[in-house]
Amino acid sequence: MLALTVHPSTTHNLIDRISWAFCVYLEAVSVLPQLRPMQNTKV
User: Fold this and answer.
1) Is the pTM of this model over 0.70?
2) Cα(24)–Cα(31) distance, integer angstroms
3) What does the alpha-carbon distance between residue 12 and residue 17 come to, in Å, rounded to a whole number?
4) Where in the cell is it found (predicted)?
5) Tell me, what's the pLDDT at 39?
């Protein structure tokens, strides 16, 4: 839903902009579960 409402304003067509925004948001959210085990490990 966020990608549909907030997408960059570039010269590409609407579908490309929404797809690009979805990928960026998905990548940002997918990093969060990986941070928890890294915080719990002691080096």
Assistant:
1) no
2) 11
3) 7
4) Endoplasmic reticulum membrane
5) 83
